[in-house]
Amino acid sequence: MPFSLWLSLAAICAMGAMSPGPSLALVLKHTLGGGRLPGITAAVFHAAGVGFYALLTVWGLGALITRSPDVFQLITWTGASYLAWLGIKALRAGRAGVMNQQGVATTSRQAAREGVLVALGNPKLIIFFVALLSQFVTPGMSIMAKMIVVLTAMLIDGGWYVLVAVGLSHSRVLPWLQRHAHWVNRLTGVLLIALALRVVAGPITFG
After folding, report:
1. CA 41, 144, 65, 198 torsion: positive or negative?
2. I need a labelling partner for 45 at 20 to 30 A (CA). Which of 23, 36, 82, 119 fits?
């Protein structure tokens, strides 16, 4: 995989990970309720669930492109619609949302269990990944290239939420995020809508 193509993949995966939603709420809850270790544990186990869905998506996309290009196109457009809906939802969120989470007492074991369950219990991740990874998966893609795609999605997801857990373990970070939550929501909303438009435009190719 060319490095320039990988950078595009990494940027899109980061955009998906950073969008406010149940995953961020999960890490916030366990960090505020148990401290840095439970927050990091939730992040790592959530990333494992994301990696599992990414693996299923990559393997399924290659076969779908080859056998049913029309069905693949329909699923891709459905994914784009979902991204646009997430973007509009983020734009309308204002100051409310996951940034206003309150901590409850928790442990690393609970954080690990909920991290996996939040990822695997969210089948919309499949739609999300179809929209994202359809830009990079081709019918003749090698196993190594597929693994790079899966590992990139998993490591960026885990890395982002570990940073969130570490940052939120400092008492000054969360109040700042809460004060600026409307700007976070607006930025992620615009980026998600832009990503939806990019998916509709067609795959990213490098000659």
Report:
1. positive
2. 82
Q: How far is CA 132 from CA 12, 50, 53, 104, 181, in A?
A: 7, 13, 12, 34, 25
**Which two structure tokens, joined as six digits, stand for 148?**
């790079």
Half-sphere exposure of 30 (CA within 13 A, CB side): 31
With beta carbons less than 8 A apart as the criterion, state whether 12 and 81 touch: no
Q: Is-contact 192 90, C-beta < 8 A?
A: yes
Buried b (16+ CB within 10 A) or exposed e, 164-186: bbebbbeeeebeebeeebeebbe
Q: Which one-letter amino acid corresponds to residue 141?
A: M
DSSP-based three-state secondary structure for 71: helix
Token digits of residue 81 = 């619609």
For 73-106, the pLDDT digits (tens) are 776 777 678 778 877 876 776 555 555 555 566 7
How far is residue 153's CA from residue 9's CA, in Å, rounded to a whole number?
8
Q: Do 31 and 104 meet the contact criterion of CB atoms below 8 Å apart?
A: no
